[in-house]
Each structure stands twice: as C-alpha cells, then as structure tokens.
Amino acid sequence: MTSGGSASLASVQELETRFLKACVDALGADRFVTGAVDKQPYLTDWTGEFTGDAIAIARPRRTEEVAALVKLCVEYGVQIVPQSGRTGLAGGAIPIGSGPSLVISLERMNAIRSIDSSSRTAVVEAGVILEVLHDAVLKHDLVFPLTFGAKGSCMIGGALATNAGGSNVVKYGTTRELCLGIEAVLPDGSVINGMTGLRKDNTGLDLKDLLVGAEGTLGIITAAVLKLAPRPTARATGFLALGSLDEALDTLNAIQDRTGGAVEAYEYMPQPMLDAICRAFPQTSLPLTGDVGTGILFEVASTRPSDAEMMDEGGTRLESELLAELEAQMENGAVLDAVIASSERQRDDLWRMRESVLESIQHAGPYYTFDLSLPLGRVAEFVAKMDVAAKDLGFAPLVIGHLGDGNLHYALSAAEGVDFHDLSLDAAKAAAFDLLADLHGSFSAEHGIGQSKLGLMDGMKEPAQLAAMRRIKQALDPQNLMNPGKLIPGVEARP
To answer: What residue ranges carry the coiled-coil annotation (predicted)?
Structure first.
C-alpha cells in the first residue's frame, strides 16, 4: 500500500514536472511563478478562508498565451484556475486541491486597448484595475459606472466572472448589463472573439452572457467591450433618516419620479451599522445626530444641461428638485431628517463611511455574512423577521444594503458578552434561508458562488436549472478542468 502510494505520488510529480517544462518551453520562464513563497499570495483570497496549491502561477500577457496554456492543461489533465485581483469573498479563484492545478493570473493583461467617445465604449483587458479604468475614461468626460469598495484592487476579469454589482446597479445595472462583448478562451483552448461592440446582434446564442457570471467555469474572459456613460454635470449626495424600510423605498420611488430616474445609489445604513463604524473608526463624524433608525446614503446625478443650471436661490436645478421632494417626504412623515453634502469633501466623507463597512464588521469580532437579494417589496419583511430570529439566537445583526436593487449584506456578529463560537450559526443560516425561500429571494446577489456556496446551490437551486447548468458545463468542458469545484455542484469529468 505504501509503495503504491509512493508510486502514485511519484507519477504525479513526474507529470507536474513534464507539464511545467512544456509550459516554460511554450511561453518562457518569465511567465511563471514557481517558488513556494512567491506563489503564496496567489493561493488565498481576500478573506483568508480559502487556500490551495498549484504547480505554478502563470502570468500571460496575451490571449494567445492563455490559449496555449489551456491546451497544455487539456493535454496533461491539469486543472485550470483563472484569477485576477483576488478580492473575491467566495473562494472562486483558489484551487480546490482535487488534482494538479495551474493558476492563470491575468494581472499582466492590463491594457486599456481603446476608448471610443463616439460609441461610448472602452475595450479593456481582464487585468485592468477598475479604478484605473475609472480614471482613464474620466479624461474623455465619460464614466464606467460599475463601482464598489474594492475598486482600487479588483480587476475587470473578476468583475465579469462574478457579474459584480456594487452601488450603482439601481441606475446602470450589473456588470453583465455593462458588457457589449468579450474575448475568451474556451476549455479546449479555442478563442472566441465577440469584440464588435454591437448593441444589436441576433446571430445565435449570446455566448457573452453565458460566460459573464460563470466564474471561470466555462472559459477565461481575457478582454471585453464595456459600455460607458456620459459624465454627470449635476450631482447631489446626502444622508437620510427614515421611519422604516418601507418608507425608505417609497421615498426612493418619489425621488426617482421627481428627478427623472436620477438616483445612482441608495445605500441602507441603519443605526447599528453606524455604531459599529464609530467603534472601529472613532474619528468618524456621522452625518446626522441622534438615532437615524433607517439610515440611507444616497446619490443622484444627471447629465441633462437643464439639471446643472444654477437657481436664483443657489444650487443646481437637480438639487432644487431633490430638496423639494425631501421637504414633501418630511411633511408626510417618511423622512425624519436629512443632510446634503455641500462640498466634495463632505461627499467623500459620506462615501468613506460607506466603504469602511467591511472593516467595521471585522472589528466587531468573528462574523458571518449573507449576500442576499429580495424583491423590493419583501426587504422590510425579511429584515424584521431575520432580526428577531438572529437576536433570539444570541447574534447582533449588522446590516448594510444596496437598497435600490434589493441586495442586503446581512452580517451576524455576537451580542455583547457572548462568544460567537458558542452560538448556533447553523440555526441562523437555516432561519435565513427558509425565510429567503418563502420570500422568493436569492442566496447569492453579487459575490458569486465560488466554493463557499456550492452546498447552497445543490440544496436551494431549482433542480431543472441545475441539471441544465451541468449539461452546459459538461458539453464545453468534458474533462471538468476549467475551475472545477466552483459554481456548479455535482459536475463530473466524462471518461
């Protein structure tokens, strides 16, 4: 038994050696990281919860090099793990350890190939950092509206792979809706080039929409054509205190109606979350005094020249319309208090507070976070019932959300004086997922499935949908080499 195990280990090591030599011969040694210490940053994600191992880290510079690597992986039976910024929260870009793996990092494919002001598109490679793209298109008086806290280190490839959301989905949609075309390497090493940027093209199945959100299980997106939007000429950012979540949603719709759909962000930040921010960052100056109850950080923006006109009473027309609506909402009792940023610095302070949420939750101690979405009309019911269930179990809920699109990040930390590890997290999860099923919500809104939610996919996703996903996966990747053990449970390699 020992000798058989040793022989098996020796054969695996021999395969890995031959595979790595073939890769180096094809691309050159400078494309690979092989030392144990040097590989380590690529073998764990932002959470530190998931770790793995790999023969090497490949860092190609061109799509042709990615294709060559994939073909070699198919030839040698080596698993492929696509990777970009490693800011994920679900273990989707980390090897699972079920066989020899090659991590293909796209960090060196970081060119912005073109920015077209007439079509309002950008052609970018997968390794472009989101904030770098923001800065580049701003020089053309354009914006790429996808934004979230990790924008300074996340990359476009990961955003496409997970169909990332963020704060501006309420106006611009998710990454899938901002993508007009992709260049990608399929699991057999063939390359698809859908980079025309056409807004109308009904020539068959849309492979772009199939690969965006597939978490690298159906292929590796190496470049994309992305939609840009005109730079707003008028903007207003503020914070509201409201009586309830239902009133917050009514106020959102009222502001949308008054401003012509100008709401770009509508972020739920209740008082317990603000308290957690102040504990983690004592220097924080909250925008409103007292208990805000249902707090909302919001932003409206417009590109209409008329909205940027200055009014006699001061401020832009957009600000004037916004203030008029907020006054009306105060009169009917929905809005209890409000503040509007009067400078760019105050706006930055508000968004800095929002972007400190994750660190503030971590500061509170051990925690577990749900990434949920619900129909807008059921958000208040979920929060009310889940708060009761969580507190009965000894947890202290810390909730944040992109309320405009129904996405909640519902974190469970321990109540004061309670050890988190003494609490029944399984009971809390059961309560959350049962409630979510009753309210027709989703257990994964924007962070992806990865490894962390694979069991939930098996238990909560409709069987017919899962079966269809497995058939697609097996058709494109019969050896199950492309990011195995992620997104789609129960996939087996065909003999």
So the answer is: none
Considering the domain architecture, whether residues 132 and 103 belong to the same structural domain is answered as no
Domain C-terminal end among 53, 77, 108: 108
**pLDDT digits over 411-421, tens only?**
999 999 999 99
User: Is residue 391 located within the same domain as residue 434?
Assistant: yes
Give the pLDDT score at 3. 44
What value does the mean pLDDT take over residues 472-490? 97
Is there a single domain that holds both residue 89 and residue 45?
A: yes
Please check whether residues 425 and 287 belong to one and the same domain: yes
In a shared domain, residues 59 and 149 = no
145: CATH: 3.30.465.10
One domain, residues 162 and 182: yes
The CATH number of residue 75's host domain is 3.30.43.10
Residue 77 CA to residue 418 CA, distance in Å, equals 49
Q: Would residue 461 count as lying in a domain?
A: no
* Number of structural domains in the chain: 3
> Which H, E and C letters describe the chain, residue by residue?
CHHHHHHHHHHHHHHHHHHHHHHHHHHCHHHEECCHHHHHHHHECCCCCCECCCCEEECCCCHHHHHHHHHHHHHHCCEEEEECCCCCCCCCCCCCCCCCEEEEECCCCCCEEEEECCCCEEEEECCCEHHHHHHHHHCCCEECCCCCCCCCCCEHHHHHHHCCCCCCHHHHCCHHHHEEEEEEECCCCCEEECCCCCCCCCCCCCHHHHHCCCCCCCCEEEEEEEECEECCCEEEEEEEEECCHHHHHHHHHHHHHHHCCCEEEEEECCHHHHHHHHHHCCCCCCCCCCCCEEEEEEEEEECCHHHHCECCCCCEHHHHHHHHHHHHHHHCCCEEEEEECCCHHHHHHHHHHHHCHHHHHHHCCCEEEEEEECCHHHHHHHHHHHHHHHHHCCEEEEEEEEHHHCEEEEEEEECCCCCHHHCCHHHHHHHHHHHHHHCCCECECCCCCCCCCHHHHHHHCCHHHHHHHHHHHHHHCCCCCECCCCCCCCCCCCC
Q: Tell me the mean pLDDT in the region 253-278.
A: 98
* Residue 270 reports pLDDT greater than 60: yes
pLDDT bucket at 150, cuts 50 / 70 / 90? very high
Q: Which residue range is the domain that position 68 belongs to?
A: 9-108
Q: Could you read off the pLDDT of 345-403 as tens digits, one per residue?
A: 999 999 999 999 999 999 999 999 999 999 999 999 999 999 999 999 999 999 999 99
| Domain co-membership, 58 together with 118 | no
| Per-residue pLDDT, 495 | 62
